[in-house]
Fold this sequence. Notes:
Layout: E1 2-9, E2 27-31, H1 38-42, H2 45-62, H3 78-102, E3 106-117, E4 120-125, E5 130-140, E6 145-146, H4 150-159, E7 162-164, E8 178-182, H5 186-198, E9 201-205, H6 217-226, E10 261-263, E11 268-269
Helix pairs in contact: 2-3, 2-5
Amino acid sequence: xxxxxxAIIGSGSGNSxxxxxxxxxxxxxxxxxxxxxxxCLNVGCIPTKMFVxxxxxxxxxxxxxxxxVDATLEQVRFTDVRDRVFGRIDPISRxxxxxxxxxxxxxxxxxxxxxxxPRDLEVELRDGTTEHVRAGQVVIATGAYATRPEELGLxxxxxxxxxxxxxxxxxxxxxxxxxxVIGGGYIAMEMAHVFSAFGTEVVVSxxxxxxxxxxxxxxxxxxxxxxxxxxxxxxRHRRDRPAPRGGRxxxxxxxxxxxxxxRRPRGHRPPSQHS
Length: 275
């Protein structure tokens, strides 16, 4: 049994609670994910913006002729971009984990926690053992995980399609020739832009009449004003309407989705519902 003042579940935003101010307190930090440091560092804000920067460079070169600058883009070396991004991020994650593991007054537990009482936790560790934690306070800072509907997974398996989420798509072994992005939110549009700028043929499948429908009219005006260039060669469509001329229309009930990779950023749920 580990007795601490504060138990923190999650190493992302929860990590910021371990400052010098409460140095006289004892902590347990519990992280079940494959990497340490949370979404923003490993699969969110930081790596995505590094990818977006490269996509913007590629797009600027392609569109250089519009203001009178003639330039040719030979290729985007996806594996070099990927290795550069995570070559910087992964050492930060590892260093952060080592710092907490070796820190004073901190018990770092790599495993999945569940409550057995109001302030009692049972942690299933990676090595198969179990640790019990009793804390004066418990902070839940677990964030959320991307969801993948069971029927979509079964269809993809049947058709030999690989499904990725925002947690995995940036670490692909190579740049896919084609990609279907399911969802019209900001994560979907960000990744559609990145991969289409890199040279992937991207199709976006969205339920509603417009993309980024929860982001406000200012964002929508910017997206639709630029048209297809905002998402490269991605095509906007609804599943219950005819496809626009020249676009690709994939009904969700179709037996075959002829894509190399499918990416589903729509929908997140709490880790307590994550299997």
